[in-house]
Every structure is written in structure tokens, then in C-alpha cells.
Amino acid sequence: MKEKIISKASEMFLKLGFKSVTMDDIAGEMCISKKTIYKYFCNKELLIEESTTTVHKEIHEIINTIISKNYNAIEENFEIRKMFKEMFQSSDDSPIYQLKKHYPEIYEIVIAREINECNTTFEQNIIKGIQQGYYRENINIKNYIQFYYNLVFTIKENISSEKEGQQIELEVLEYHTRAMATPAGVIELEKQLLNYTK
């Protein structure tokens, strides 16, 4: 039952917002009593913590699945971008923005977790792109990871509209890729941008 509550709560939090969804809403949606939820979670904050942990795991499992498909480095980033677009398309407000605004302590935990995972993913992608000839060999990988991470998370933290945020994130991905790309990388980027907007 605990896993079912976390699953339903995660779905509702991402779709309707961390602030607006109440324990009553979750109980009503699941056709159980609020008392049943409180049996597993003494307060809403604890349920949000568990939900964000679950969503984090799901996202990174999907990312690892995408990486295992051996796309080229640029295509891989666009496939990950598509995954985020599909996962959050029903959200009006950015979940990260809401978390920072209403539950800052939980937000800090989420961000600390993301820094480790994202830095590893970004680094692997850049190394792969250099080996494939899509990214320039002389770039400072550590700095480029930092640039990209700062850009993406500044958007997530400060733009409340999920749709607007996703559009800007696509532009950031283009900006990031062009900054690293070889002539072959630019050709691949143009191809991916064309496919993405279709």
C-alpha cells in the first residue's frame, strides 16, 4: 500500500503541484481513508520526500536506458530532452520551481542528489561526443559541465511555467551543443533540431 500511495502522490504532485495537492485529494483519488495515508506518512512533507526520491530514481533509470541504446552523443541528449517533455507535458507549473518556493528544505535535498547524477551523465556524454568527433577535443570538460548544469537548473528554479521552461531548455541544449560542436557536430545538431520540432 505504501508504494501505491507514493506512486499516486508522485503522479498528482507532478501534474497538479506540490502545494495544491492535499492528503485528502490523494485519499479521494485512491478511494482510501486519509487515516490509511497517515499510517505510512506522518505528514505531507514526508510523502513529498519519498515521492521526489521515487521520481528521481524513475528519471535516472529512463536516462540509463536511453544511454544504453548507444545513440550518438548529440542524439542521446535530444532523446533525454524528449523524455522530460513527455514526462512533464501535463504539468502547468514547473515541479522544481514549486518545490523551491513551497518546500525549500526538500528542494535542497533533491538538488544535492541531482548534482551528482547529472554531472556524471553530462561528463559521460561530453567524453562520448569527443570520441565520436562531434565535440571538440580541446574543451574543458569540467567547466562545460558546470556551464550547462547552471543554465538548466537556473531555468528550472526560476520559471514557473513548465511549457515555457521546456522551450528555453531546448534552446539551452542547442546553445550548449553549438559551443562544443565540431563541423560534423553542427550538422548532427541541425538534424536533431529538425527531428525534435516535427
Write up what this structure looks like.
This protein is an all-alpha fold. The chain has a single domain, classed as Tetracycline Repressor, domain 2 (Orthogonal Bundle). It has ten helices and no strands. The chain has helices spanning 2-16, 23-30, 34-40, 44-68, 73-87, 95-102, 104-132, 141-158, 162-180, 183-197. Helix 1 (2-16) crosses helix 4 (44-68), helix 5 (73-87) packs antiparallel against helix 9 (162-180) and helix 7 (104-132) runs antiparallel to helix 8.
Summarize the structure.
The protein is an all-alpha fold. It has helices spanning 2-16, 23-30, 34-40, 44-68, 73-87, 95-102, 104-132, 141-158, 162-180, 183-197.
Short descriptors:
about 0% strand, single chain, mainly alpha, Homeodomain-like_sf, about 80% helix, about 200 residues, Tetracycline Repressor, domain 2
Oligomer: single chain
Number of helices: 10
- The N- to C-terminal Cα distance equals 41 Å
What structural class do the secondary elements suggest? mainly alpha
Largest sheet: none
**CATH level 1 class label:** Mainly Alpha
Question: What is the overall shape?
Answer: elongated
**What is the CATH topology classification name?**
Tetracycline Repressor, domain 2
List the helices and strands and how they pair.
Blueprint: H1 2-16, H2 23-30, H3 34-40, H4 44-68, H5 73-87, H6 95-102, H7 104-132, H8 141-158, H9 162-180, H10 183-197
Helix pairs in contact: 1-4, 4-5, 4-7, 5-7, 5-9, 5-10, 6-7, 7-8, 8-9, 9-10
